């Protein structure tokens, strides 16, 4: 490029060339070809202005438009010469100088002295004599004339001397840690500002020479390297800096307020100097490890689990905040892992043993949520947590189910307690444990384990609980609430292994509800039936569905019977309603022969004749224990209707023939069994509605007691239901139901053994037992299986191997 101090002869030649180019340019000013412009000295320009005539505005505009032609190459102001005579335009050729401009002597030394003076002024924070533009131009000129290497080395030497001189201020022993850190920060900030200023002056050097030489550091990196070598690599300086930083962080961890901006600046300095990891991070993590190791052991003994978990969460948040404010992000993983390891991972078992049961028992939702969140951060934390939760569920559930004292109140409340317990645990899993699949499965496994530790009883009580909710008079819940309750009961039902026990008791209670008309809602009954069918299949509910069909068929039969009797002479003013029950569907009832009034016997014979006339080959067996009646009774205070059982009816009808009867007389007249008769008379003479008066007065009925009709009986209702006194869930009834279940199970075991042996032909004892456990859906002891095998051997369904007694052969 031409310099302002070029020799005079060269300038004269240049002016001649410029003149020629100028005349050519004026001559073809209308053309859309614009010759490149050259730098023209001011003296020549004024001479041209004097010699050329003044240009009009239109000429100026034409020249201007020629210089700014449209981008598509068309020009609205093209001259006639170009338009009419194409090809006559001459080409302009621009030639280089004949001789290359030479630099003045000692140019390099003078220029460097100027630049050095500027650099030293920056180091001393003084004003720079030369302008920044002049300095930048000087660097550019030196680089253009291959002085880059020398310039770079000179600059490095000046900077090196300055940085080396700065070390002395840090070697004094009088400063405390805080003053030292502030001085270090001040020195670092000043160094950075100086290097930025120097780089801006030497930017041309940085972008040409440095970029072209990969082995040479940029000016900024050179400055960092000098600071690293001469300042921070000094053992004393580095130690005092790092120890001071660690002391500040320790004070902050102890609750003191510290200068976070100072920390941030110095840690960024270490990071920029690329000694953050080796100089600071290793010591910082070691100090952190020592602090939290001691803190974790101390606080685990001193604090309760909720307080300890809150402290751990607080510490983790504090360290995350430090990472955000001043620590390098590369430290995040190591730092957080260190805190989690010392405050959580090393104390998982202790935390769970010390506080989990209490948190679950007291339903501490917030604390359990925090525990889940913290445990999810460490390895095997959630596994330890769900195993401990399952252990708590098994322990607490076992206390609900097992009743070593045979406390009837505890058994009565068992199902409601299980439902409440399940609701509480489900809420904890949903809210605190984020419905984690492993926790859901652990809860299922725990419930299934403890609920089957007491065989048969949970199934029985669940059936009775369903009965209490589906029975008429249960005004506790709306239909929607009842439906939700049935869904919850089905969850418990799924955990039970002995579902056949549930079926037996449920069938018995369903029969009572249907026959006595105590069912609260047919829709609720059918909803429960569909749930059982969906859970266990059609085979499980086929008998229960048959019971509903019998009730519907009975209604049709009674319609036909009433039409049949409308033309007959029916005895008395009796209205008879009969339910026809298929014996295979309904529970087994023990028939009881009693003495019925003549009118009732005659009515029964009419119905029997009618039914057998329509269904030949069938046998009817009347079940007096299930009958109930509505009697019209006349008292001094007016008439009443009494809703009573058949046995109560037989006792009350005797008082149409007399006023006082003894226990023996009633027994002889009705032929009701002793225990049943005592409960019947007790309900009539000792209950709430005392239509009979007993003497002597007492709560229990004994032989020799006398009974008199209570003519003065009063009640606010017209129709009064007098409930039969129930035995406390008659032991015989329970035993008979359970025995029937066991009998059915024996048949199922026998069928399974024969089915397996028929397929395998030859099988060892252990394999047969294993196969049976896979097929049977109810719990059974190995000793019971062995008895069934022996029974089948005795009945020639199978035989032992002569050489190996543990081998069985199927006998076709």
TrEMBL record:
One of its GO terms (molecular function) is ubiquitin protein ligase binding. Residues 1-87 are annotated as: Disordered. Residues 10-21 have a biased composition (Basic and acidic residues). It holds the Pfam family Cullin_AB. Residues 457-685 form the Cullin family profile domain. It comes from the Eukaryota. GO terms for cellular component: Cul4A-RING E3 ubiquitin ligase complex. Keywords: Biological rhythms, DNA damage, DNA repair, Host-virus interaction, Isopeptide bond, Phosphoprotein, Ubl conjugation, Ubl conjugation pathway. GO terms for biological process: cellular response to UV; developmental process; DNA repair; proteasome-mediated ubiquitin-dependent protein catabolic process; regulation of protein metabolic process; rhythmic process; ribosome biogenesis. Residues 53-87 have a biased composition (Polar residues). The keyword DNA repair applies. Pathway: Protein modification; protein ubiquitination. Belongs to the cullin family. This is Cullin-4A.
